[in-house]
TrEMBL record:
Major location category of this protein: cytoplasm
Family to which this protein belongs: Belongs to the TACO1 family.
Species name: Gloeomargarita lithophora Alchichica-D10
Domain TACO1/YebC-like N-terminal, first and last residues per copy: 5-75
Occurrences of domain TACO1/YebC-like second and third (ranges): 85-239
Keywords (A to Z) from UniProt: Cytoplasm, DNA-binding, Transcription, Transcription regulation
Name of this chain's protein: Probable transcriptional regulatory protein GlitD10_0041
Pfam families: TACO1_YebC_N, Transcrip_reg
Subcellular location: Cytoplasm
Entry's Gene Ontology BP terms: regulation of DNA-templated transcription
InterPro entries associated with the record: Integrase-like_N, TACO1_YebC-like_2nd/3rd_dom, TACO1_YebC_N, Transcrip_reg_TACO1-like, Transcrip_reg_TACO1-like_dom3, YebC-like
Ranges that cross the membrane: none
C-alpha cells in the first residue's frame, strides 16, 4: 500500500501520538474552527464538524476545548477565526517522491517558509501549486475498526456501495467518492457497522518504489518534520515501500 495509508501505518508504529498530544489538539481545534465557520456550528447539521469532533474526542481532547473551538468558529469568542485560511502546498521529497500538504494558517508567508525549510533540510524541494497535485485524486475515506477480515470488508463495500476498499495490517477502510462520504457513513451505521475516521484524503494515482533504507529514512524524516509544523493539517505522499525496507528504516 502506498502514500497516505503507508504513512499512517508508519506513524502508528512509531507511537508518536502521545508525545505530540498538545500539538495534535491544536490541529483538531483549527479544523473545528474552520468547519464551524464555513458551515453550521451544530455538528448534527455539519458533517465536517462532526467528524473533526469525533477525531478530537478519540484522541482525548476535553469537551471544554472542543466547545471553545466551535464557539471560536461561530464567532462567539471574537474574530480570530476569520484569519485562518486553507492553503495547499506541493513539492518533492528526495528521489522524486511527490508530497502534498494541506494547512490552515493565519500567515501564509510564515507557513510557506517553515514548509520550505523542512523540504530543504531533508533533500526535497517545495514546488509551485499544481506541480504534483495531478498525481493524486481526492477520495472519501472511512475507517472501519470493527471489521476483522478482508471478506467482511468486501461485503460492506458491496452493500453500501463503495468505490473500493483497502486492507493492510490494522487498517480496514472503504473508499468512496468525496461527495458520497456522509451518505456512505450513514448507510454503514444503519447496517450496524462501526465507522471510525471519516474524511477526504489525497490518494496517489501513481507511486514511487523506495527500495533503499537511507532514501526511505530521509523521506520519512521529511514527512515527520512537515507534520510537526503547527499549521500543517495533513501530509500525503506517493511512495511505496516493501516490508524489509520499512523495517530497515525504522531501525535507525
Amino acid at each position: 500500500m502506498a502514500g497516505h495509508s503507508k504513512w499512517a501505518n508508519i506513524k502508528r508504529q512509531k507511537a508518536r501520538v502521545d508525545a505530540l498530544k498538545g500539538q495534535i489538539f491544536a490541529k483538531f481545534s483549527r479544523e473545528m474552527i474552520v468547519a464551524a465557520r464555513t458551515g453550521l456550528p451544530d455538528p448534527a447539521g455539519n458533517f465536517r464538524l462532526r467528524t473533526a469532533m469525533e477525531k478530537a474526542k478519540a484522541a482525548g481532547m476535553s469537551q471544554e476545548n472542543i466547545e471553545r473551538a466551535i464557539a471560536k468558529g461561530a464567532g462567539l469568542l471574537g474574530a480570530d477565526a476569520d484569519s485562518l485560511e486553507a492553503v495547499r502546498y506541493e513539492g518533492y521529497a528526495l528521489g522524486g517522491v511527490a508530497v502534498l500538504i494541506e494547512a490552515l494558517t493565519d500567515n501564509r508567508n510564515r507557513t510557506a517558509g517553515e514548509i520550505r525549510a523542512a523540504f530543504n533540510k531533508y533533500g526535497g524541494n517545495l514546488g509551485e501549486t499544481g506541480c504534483v497535485g495531478w498525481m493524486f485524486a481526492q477520495v472519501g475515506w472511512l475507517e472501519m475498526p470493527g471489521v476483522t477480515s478482508e471478506d467482511d470488508l468486501l461485503a460492506a463495500a458491496m452493500q453500501v456501495p463503495a468505490t473500493g476498499y483497502e486492507w493492510e495490517g490494522e487498517t480496514a477502510a472503504l473508499v468512496t467518492e468525496p461527495l458520497d462520504l456522509e451518505r456512505v457513513a450513514a448507510a454503514l451505521q444503519d447496517q450496524g457497522y462501526r465507522v471510525g475516521a471519516a474524511m477526504t484524503r489525497w490518494q496517489p494515482t501513481m507511486t514511487v518504489a523506495i527500495t533503499d533504507a537511507d532514501w526511505g529514512r530521509q523521506v520519512l524524516r521529511l514527512l515527520e518534520g512537515l507534520e510537526d509544523l503547527d499549521d500543517v493539517q495533513t501530509v500525503s505522499a506517493n511512495f511505496d515501500m516493501d516490508e524489509r525496507t520499512l523495517v530497515a528504516c525504522m531501525g535507525n
